[in-house]
Amino acid sequence: MVLRAESNRKVVVSVIIILVFAVIISKLFYIQVVNSSYKFSAANNVLRYVTQYPARGLILDRHGTPVVTNKPVFDILMVKNQVKPFDTVEFATMLGLTVEQVSDAFVQASKQKGYSPRKAVVLLNQISAENFSRFQEVMYKYSGFEVQPRTVRSYNRPIAAHLLGYIGEVDERDIKNAPYYQQGDYIGISGIERSYEHVLRGKKGVKIFMVDVYNRIKGLYEKGKFDTIATPGKNITSTIDIKLQEYGERLMQNKIGSIVAIEPQTGEVLAMISSPTYDPSLLVGRQRAVNFKALQQDSLKPIFNRSIMALYPPGSTFKVVNALIGLQEGVVTPETRYSCDGGYHIGRGVACHSHPSPTNLIQSIQVSCNTYYCHVFRNIIDKREFGSVEKGFTVWKKHVESFGFGSKLGIDLPHELKGIVPSVSFYDKYFRKGGWNSLTIISLAIGQGELAVTPLQMANLAAIIANKGYYLTPHVVKAIEGESITPDYHQKHFTSIDSVYFRYIIEGMDLAVNGVPGSGSTARIAALPDIRICGKTGTAQNPHGKDHSVFFAFAPKDDPKIAIAVYVENAGFGATWAAPTASLMIEKYLKDSISRPDLERYILDANLLDRHAKAK
Amino acid sequence: MQRQNSILRNLDWVATILYILLVIMGWFNIYAAVYSDDHRNILDFSQRYGKQLVWIFFAFIMAFIILNTNDRIYPAFAYIFYGVVLLSLISTLLFGRVVNASKSWIPIGSFGIQPAEFAKITTSLALAKLMSSYGFKLSGFWSYVKVAIIVGLPVGIILLQNDMGSALVFGALVLVLYREGLPGWILAYMFFLVLVFILTLMYSTSVLIAFIFAVAIMLLVIYTRHYRDAFRVTLGTLGIGLLLFVASELFHLKLSVEIIFLIPVIIAVFIGFAYAYRKRLKQVYAISFFLIATLGFSMSADYVFERVLDVHHQKRINNLLGIEDDPLGWGYNVNQSKIAIGSGGFWGKGYLSGTQTKYNFVPEQSTDFIFCTVGEEWGFVGSAVVVSLIAIFLLRLLKIAERQTEHFARIYGYSVVSILFFHAAVNIGMTIGLVPVIGIPLPFFSYGGSSLWAFTILVFILLRFDASRYGSY
Questions:
Q1: Over chain A, what is the mean pLDDT?
Q2: How far apart are CA A92 and CA A376, in angstroms?
Q3: Given A216, A238, A260, which residue is the final one in a domain?
Q4: Residue A42 domain-assigned?
């Protein structure tokens, strides 16, 4: 009995031992074999992914001259836990910063998302190469800091800011939209940088390191088997002629407005100037935020790309469109004459300036007769076959829209605006249904009223006329690393006007520039002895003060190489400022020299900003 | 020569080989835990694996000396050894060095010795001496008092050294008492109290009251088989509880839930006592007593937890039970330890290829958390082998203890098994999150001279007894 009890107890103790070890083995089985979460945690512990940033693609002009290149900068990273007390004054001075900036950076760094005192986080970004090389010599003194080389944009000349655009760090929305991006990455925010972001950015690589508990690098994971190398971004050849662009910006200095020049046969944008502009290198480097704010607060809106975002009335330049529609609809012929006694006196009436009268169609363009176009416009809208004003207006609107007005042309730049071409329902609402007729909207005859176009659309109109009836979607990029761009840009878009009618318009525009003295030509100032320029002035009335000076043209007449539109805000007559500017641009592009230094000086020296100030 | 031969002939070679195997495996894992490309020379004595090699060498010499020493000295000098170590424990308390918040080291030159490690040996010897003394029987109040004094003195001093882990080890000696006649229900009740303690921390008081009451009713049914009475008591208690609840709601007495649970159970206890008295039913007495004692324990468990235990003990327990989740704070060790072991997978990452242990994600990885290296580099297969080897070693020692003809040797043998068992189970258990973190070494694996020597001496005294069990030499 006693013996049995004893042997029982021996068994109980053995069983307890065996049971406990069985539980231990089961738990080991669970965490080592069944549950895989520990393996992920282990990888998180020990692997550190270091992004390898590729160099962004360069941007060249149409002749291969580099416009945007890269320069190295250095981000200073810190691992908070490893930072030992240090001489902040020396630290800041070496980096070319103030002590306040450094201490502020420490505060900011600890606030960023995903901050951990054991991980390397960016403390200071975009330290210039000069400052960094100085710091590098003393860097050994500061523990807990690391360096991450990056590249930022570098500009050879302070031009084409709007066209090129700028880059900046991605925000949370970018990361959400495209998982490719991680915090700290750069992305194109405007201009070509934005629209060709996916080409320019290249592909990031990653190096996987093994780190110990103090986040010290212990070597490459699996000898770099899973590392990927960064693929540099592709270089982009722009359609821009950098000399023409630079010249245009000089001509537009101290003026507000825009110049757009297009090669008619291809739709390639040769120059795109929006004035005032800014030095694109202002938006690079550590001062970017400060500079950006200053630019943003500037009352002249230098960041605003007027070439594709400003909406102006077309003014008299629009008469050529009405002339073409009239010809197409058969309500006017080249021989149709109307006399002008200083205005059109029916309804609200439209005034005109003094010029030889009567005029035929070609002469009407040459002298820019308002009265003539009131007749033409009413002939279109009130054409008997249409039966109603609404129908007539709709036909007119369709023709207008076939020129690319009222919709985005589809240029490869972000933020392009559509412009405005009013609709029947607009007038129905504005007046009332049946409460309007061709007289009510007579301003449209001379490109005023409810019309709004961008300078790009205006330049495109010049290209359409130069091409006698079609255009190619204007674009700013010619080729990507040798490969030509999307075929969409090689597609001809025909207007609803037969090609045959264009020659009368071209004749009129030729005479407007090259007519004999006293014949009433409006743009004789633009004439060149050896290049036949066809152009048309405009003086766009607008609610913001003095009229805008408008001119659009193409040249040479027989083999057009350049189509151009110039808008100078609040500058007065088209012939005074816009026409000579366009003429100089054409000469510069076609001859690469200026034969009229006086005219050039006259434009360069003009400061029209005070007129704008008054207009405000 | 004759004596030498018979000792070696009678030595239990299974246990000895297992011992050597475990020590060698331990050393390889310490090497792996400390290993880095900077230092790989195994004889580099500035590194822990180099030092451990020295400790192992001395451990083997000690084992050899013990095997060649007359085993009669242990019963003869048990109390003297006990007294000497007690004195050194006290002097540690007065002059010792503080390591990891515990004042448990006596510095000797550049090294240190932990007397608490050796107190395990001398306490085992003294306990064996007491319990094997003529006429001693583990029954009656005074026999337990004597046992309590023998074990309590070193435990008290070690607690004063702030070394909770080492003190807890002595709790394992309850297995010895069990073997020598401690009633089985006491062992069972102790396990039950541990369960109640854990449940108290995890659940509300009312749940605990309901749970303890349910266990009491179950015991009532099992031991008395008075199904109807058990049913009546249950129903009656529930009825009183319901009445209290309704009354509280109707008259807005605002009685707390605990009170509504507690009062009916107390009433049931009183009825139980009265019933037992009238019917002279011993079991009902016992069960009523069980009910009231367990309730009392449960009620005070919270208090003990909050007031008696240190913050870090509380945190470790809470972390284990999942009451608090703090993987970067109190739970960091265990979390990293589980990650290291878990990442080993089935086959492990291979010797010297562990990343978590190599790059120091696991703290104390060559001492208390040495098992992480095993788990990460050798995987489930290696871990299971190590755990099984330790289990087999313990069962072998148990068998050896059981075959001793002398009471002294058997009781001592059980002490050895209990102490090693507690160390191994608790140490491995804490690295995989089965028990709260208690800083005690894994026998034969953890880095450290004192513990290796203490375990070696502990084991080889038993093996020496075993070798001469057929007669004294």
A1: 88
A2: 72
A3: A238
A4: no
For residue B3, what pLDDT band results from cuts at 50, 70 and 90?
Answer: low
CATH classification of the domain holding A333 = 3.40.710.10
Q: What pLDDT does residue A2 have? A: 44
**Nearest chain A Cα distance for residue B383, angstroms:** 8
Angstrom distance (rounded) from CA B432 to CA B430: 5
More confident residue, B470 or B51: B51
Pairwise CA distance, residues A93 & A557, whole Å? 62
CA pair distance B190, B51, nearest whole angstrom: 41
Residue A149: inside a domain, yes or no? yes
Q: Which residue has the higher pLDDT, B87 or B298?
A: B87
Neighbour tally for B73: CB within 10 Å: 12
Which of the four pLDDT bands, split at 50, 70 and 90, describes residue B74? very high
What's the CATH code of the domain at A173?
A: 3.90.1310.10
Mutate to test the interface with B, among A15, A23, A28 (most CBs of B within 10 A): A28
Chain A nearest C-alpha distance from B93 (Å): 34
Residue of A nearest to B388 (CA): A21
Task: Kindly determine whether residue B433 and residue A32, on different chains, have CB atoms separated by under 8 Å.
Answer: no
* Residue for token pair 């010809």: A327
| Pair A551, A574: CB distance under 8 Å | yes
pLDDT range class, residue B145, cuts 50, 70, 90? very high
User: Which among A32, A40, A213, A216 is the top mutation candidate for probing chain B, defined by the most B β-carbons within 10 Å of its own β-carbon?
Assistant: A32
Q: In chain A, positions 189-248, which contact chain B (CB-CB < 8 Å)?
A: 210-214, 218
Q: Do B375 and A32 touch (CB under 8 A)?
A: yes
A45 touching chain B per CB within 8 A: yes
Q: How confident is the model at residue B289 (pLDDT cuts 50, 70, 90)?
A: confident
Q: Is the CB of A172 inside 8 Å of chain B's CB atoms?
A: no
Burial class (CB in 10 A: 0-12, 13-18, 19+), B229: middle
Residue B326: what pLDDT? 62
Residue in chain A lying closest to B394 (CA):
A17
Each residue's pLDDT tens digit, B182-200: 888 888 888 888 888 888 8
Range of the domain at A151: 48-238
Mean pLDDT score, B13-33: 93
Q: What is the pLDDT of residue A616?
A: 44
Last residue of a domain, one of A238, A255, A285: A238
Judged by a CB distance cut-off of 8 A, whether residue A2 touches chain B is no
Pairs of CB atoms within 8 A across A/B = 115
Where chain A has pLDDT below 50, the residues are 1-3, 615-616
The pTM for the full model equals 0.63
Q: Do B345 and A33 touch (CB under 8 A)?
A: yes
CA dihedral A554, A555, A558, A560 (to 10 degrees): -70
pLDDT digits (tens, 9 = 90+) for B352-409: 777 777 777 777 778 889 999 999 999 999 999 999 999 999 999 999 999 998 999 9
Q: Looking at the partner chain, which of B338, B384, B402 has a beta carbon nearest the beta carbon of A31? A: B338
The CA distance from B456 to B439, in Å, is 20
Q: A154: helix, coil or strand?
A: strand
Q: Does A10 touch chain B (CB under 8 A)?
A: yes
φ and ψ of A20, to 5 deg: -60, -45
Instruction: Please name the member of A27, A45, A214 whose beta carbon is closest to the beta carbon of B339.
Output: A45
